[in-house]
Request: fold
Amino acid sequence: MPGAFSCAVLALATLATGHQAGLFYGYAISVMPGLARADARTEVTAMRRINTAIQNPWFFATFLGAPLFILAAAGLHLQPAGRAALPWIVAALVLYATMFTVTATVNVPLNERLDATGAAGAPDDAGEIRERFHDRWVRWNNVRAIACASAFGCLVVALCVTGPTPAP
Reply:
C-alpha cells in the first residue's frame, strides 16, 4: 500500500482533473446549448468574454496542475505497493493528454479566430462568425469532456484500488 504522500498526490491529481472534467461537462450540457438558443451576436460576444475571463490563475492551476500531479502520482506508484493503481493512473494521463491536445489544437485556435474577427458589427457578420465557430467548437468540446471525465474516472478507480492508508 502506498504511503500517505503518494495517496495525497493521487488525490490532488483526481481533484484537479475533476475540476477540468466538470468545466468541460458544464460547457457541453449548459453553456453551449444555452448560447445556441441565443441570437448569433449574443453568442459571439459571450464567447469572446468567456475566452478572456477563463484565462486566470485558478483555471491554469488545475488545467496545467492536473497533468503534473498525474505524472507525479504515476512516478510515486511505480513501487510494488502502488502497482495496482498504476495502470489506471497511466490511462488517466493518456486521456488527459488527449483532452489537452484537443484543447491546444482545436478549441483554443477556434477561440483565437473568434477573437480575431473583431467586434461583430452587423447581425449578418455575427451569423457568419457563429457558423464558422459553433458546431466545430461544440463537437470537439464534447470530445475533450469525454476524455477528461474518463481520466477523472480512471483516477477515482486508482484511488479505490490504492485503498486507505493505515494510521501510524
The chain has a mean pLDDT of 91. Residues 123-162 form the longest helix (40 residues). The two ends are 13 Å apart (CA to CA).
